[in-house]
């Protein structure tokens, strides 16, 4: 028997998105009704980074790999889950912490941040990665990083004014993606994983030609 845990937030109109003009609010419009045309159809308008989603290198790296070019072998397979739910707000994942953690090709970091989903606090003060920790992950051969927070960067960096497009703008995103590490953000339901051992992951984005990212259906699976 297969045990399956869905790590995906539902796409709906009232869901939160990052408050920036380059992120589209979710809109779902009815275009066909059973009473009128004998079928129900909808039009969906959403950004490539809405809800549970994948960041491809192209998101921050010009001419980087697009989401349709990510090998499926990377998005499906065994994964190691790290419990960071005791981290405080704005606490950093450091190299020293990671030296005590067994690493694998695919990693998920569980911060317990889902308790803030769909509230204004979701985008504030979440734990983040230091440059040194990212280099350690790169040199250790990690290729996929998942998290239940909206970003691996420090939320206290304000993305406006001279910060935009500078070296201070999303430096951890850029470090991961420039080294070909794929990011899974906004993971859901990690608090419902009964234990953190022996799981595999399936993380399937839309096959968007030239896409910088995509909403994805992400699940943990294992045989009982």
Write the SSE topology.
Blueprint: E1 2-6, E2 27-32, H1 34-37, E3 41-45, E4 53-55, H2 72-75, E5 76-83, E6 92-93, H3 95-98, E7 106-110, E8 128-129, H4 131-139, E9 144-147, H5 171-178, E10 182-185, E11 199-205, E12 213-223
Parallel strand pairs: 5-7, 6-8, 7-9, 9-10
Antiparallel strand pairs: 1-12, 2-3, 4-10, 4-12, 5-11, 11-12
Helix pairs in contact: 4-5
Overall description:
- The chain is built from five helices and twelve strands.
- It has 224 residues and is an alpha/beta fold.
- It has one domain: Glucose Oxidase, domain 1 (3-Layer(bba) Sandwich), CATH 3.50.30.50.
- A seven-stranded mixed barrel has the order 4-10-9-7-5-11-12. Strands 2-3 form a two-stranded antiparallel sheet.
- Strand 11 and strand 12 form a beta hairpin.
- The protein is globular and about 60 Å long.
- The model has no long low-confidence stretch (mean pLDDT 96).
Overview in brief:
This protein is of the alpha/beta class. It has a single domain, classed as Glucose Oxidase, domain 1, CATH 3.50.30.
Keywords:
alpha/beta; Glucose Oxidase, domain 1; 5 helices; two-stranded antiparallel sheet
What structural class is derived from the secondary structure elements? Answer: alpha/beta
* Helical residue percent band: 10-25%
How large is the radius of gyration? 18 Å
CATH superfamily: Putative cyclase
How many domain modules? 1
What spatial order of strands do you see in the largest sheet? Answer: 4-10-9-7-5-11-12
Would you report the number of β strands? 12
What's the CATH topology label? Glucose Oxidase, domain 1
Low-confidence stretches: none
Count every helix, treating DSSP H or I runs of 4 or more residues as helices. 5
At the first level of CATH, what is the class?
Alpha Beta
Order of helices and strands: EEHEEHEEHEEHEHEEE
| Biggest sheet character | 7 strands, mixed, barrel
Mean pLDDT: 96
Strand content: 25-35%
Separation of termini? 6 Å
What CATH architecture do you see?
Answer: 3-Layer(bba) Sandwich
């Amino acid at each position: 028997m297969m045990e399956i845990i869905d790590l995906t937030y539902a796409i709906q109109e009232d869901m939160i998105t990052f408050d920036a003009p380059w992120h589209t609010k979710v809109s779902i419009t009815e275009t066909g009704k059973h009473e009128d045309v004998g079928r129900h159809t909808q039009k969906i308008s959403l950004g490539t980074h809405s809800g549970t989603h994948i960041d491809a290198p192209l998101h921050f790296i010009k001419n980087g790999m697009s989401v349709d070019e990510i090998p499926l072998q990377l998005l499906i397979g065994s994964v190691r889950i790290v419990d960071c739910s005791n981290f405080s707000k704005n606490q950093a994942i450091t190299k020293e912490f990671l030296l005590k953690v067994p690493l694998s090709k695919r990693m998920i970091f569980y911060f317990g941040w889902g308790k803030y989903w769909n509230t204004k606090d979701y985008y504030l003060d979440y734990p983040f990665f230091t440059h040194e920790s990212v280099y350690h992950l790169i040199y250790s051969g990690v290729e996929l990083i998942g998290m239940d927070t909206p970003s691996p960067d420090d939320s206290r960096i304000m993305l406006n004014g001279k910060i935009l497009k500078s070296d201070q703008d999303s430096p951890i995103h850029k470090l991961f993606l420039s080294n070909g590490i794929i990011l899974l953000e906004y993971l859901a339901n990690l608090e419902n994983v009964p234990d953190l051992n022996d799981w595999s992951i399936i993380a399937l984005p839309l096959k968007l030609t030239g896409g910088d990212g995509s909403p994805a259906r992400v699940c943990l699976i294992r045989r009982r």
